[in-house]
Amino acid sequence: MTLPTPEPLPTLIEPAAPAAAGFDDDLPAERSRTSQLTLRYLAPVVGLALLFGGWELYVRLTGISPITLPPPSRIIVHLAAEPTFYIRNGWVTVSEALAGFFIALTVALVVATMMAHWRFAERATMPVIVLIQSTPVAVLAPVFLLWFGFSPTPKVLVAALFAFVPFVANALTGLRSVDRDTLEVLHSVDASRWEILWRLRLRYALPALFAAARICVSLALVGAVIGELYGGSTQGLGYQARIAQSRTLVDQLWGSVLALALIGIVLTLLVMALERRLLRWHTSQSQV
Fold first, then answer.
1. Read out DSSP for 46-92?
2. Which residues lie below 8 Å from residue 198, measured CB to CB, with a gap of 6+?
3. How far is it, in rounded angstroms, from Cα 99 to Cα 106?
4. Is the dihedral of CA 143, 145, 147, 151 positive or negative?
5. Which position has the higher pLDDT, 52 or 32?
6. Distances 183 to 115, 179, 192, 200, 282 between C-alpha atoms, Å
7. How many Cβ atoms sit within 10 Å of the Cβ of residue 118?
8. Residue 196 and residue 134 in contact, taking contact as beta carbons nearer than 8 Å
9. What percent of the chain has pLDDT over 90?
10. What count of Cα atoms within 13 Å lies in the side-chain half-sphere of residue 109?
């Protein structure tokens, strides 16, 4: 006997229609990219706009004398009227700062490598580093002037001293922060110290070095300016700021200050761009 076929039950919920190909899947990624671009470019612009807008508004409302505090619009007009003057002197200061920056980085890597591999070198070097850190570097500018005369060398050395201690401290931390399992594997295949340094330690030290570089590039710029203030310079933004102060050239003084601030921002952004490019593999560059 053949049983009757049961009728299908009525569908209570209609299946959702398939979405347009790629539309819904791409929407969260598109929103994420938009959010990243907003944070990266729009947020800094808003912060600077609030700073300079508040500065301008304060000067206009209080009627404060331009000798005491000129409005930013006046400083920007002055910079636009004298671009060659600030480019020429700015290049002198930047070249001194970058020379000191790379000298500090090179010496710090050598010193930190010795300290990471040799405990005696660490114990012998640490008091010297503490002494350098505790000594006001600005007072050494006249000393370097007596030693090296009226040349870029005193400014470069002051810039290098400003950047040296953060570099050596971060380099030492990075060189020792290696993966122990990978280190044991390299030891098991009889890798030399040079191979371990090049293939493992330097790779793990890069995040710490870039963290120091973001700070040291500004410190080197500060050191170059201090060297120009006290190191017998005849050009550079630090020298021009000192001349403007002695002659009450308000526009030149604030123009030099603003030009130095812009140079510091540009150098820091360049370091950060290089860090993002070289450390794409590291978790520090992942987006939250």
1. HHHHHHHHHHHHHHHHHT--TTT---HHHHHHHHHH-HHHHHHHHHH
2. none
3. 11
4. positive
5. 52
6. 18, 6, 11, 8, 18
7. 12
8. no
9. 32
10. 16
Rounded Cα–Cα distance for residues 148 and 51 (Å): 41
What distance in Å separates the CA atoms of residue 144 and residue 163, rounded to the nearest whole number? 17
Block residue for tokens 């360049």: 270
Q: Do you know the residue count of the chain?
A: 288
pLDDT at 22 over 60: no
Q: How confident is the model at residue 139 (pLDDT cuts 50, 70, 90)?
A: confident
Extract the tokens encoding 288.
Answer: 């939250």
- Residue 128: helix, strand or coil by DSSP? helix
Instruction: Tell me how far apart the terminal alpha carbons of the chain are, to the nearest angstrom.
Output: 67
Structure tokens belonging to residue 237? 């933004």
Residue 273 confidence (pLDDT) above 60: yes
Q: How high is the pLDDT of residue 48?
A: 83
DSSP label of 220: H
What global pTM score does this model have? 0.78
What letter does residue 284 receive in the DSSP assignment? G
The alpha carbon torsion through 231, 235, 238, 240 (nearest 10 deg) reads 130
**Euclidean distance between CA atoms 95 and 180, whole angstroms:** 40
| Cα(157)–Cα(177) distance, integer angstroms | 30
What is the C-alpha to C-alpha distance for residues 227 and 147, in angstroms, rounded to an integer? 14
> How much is the pLDDT for 2?
47
What pLDDT score does 75 carry? 92
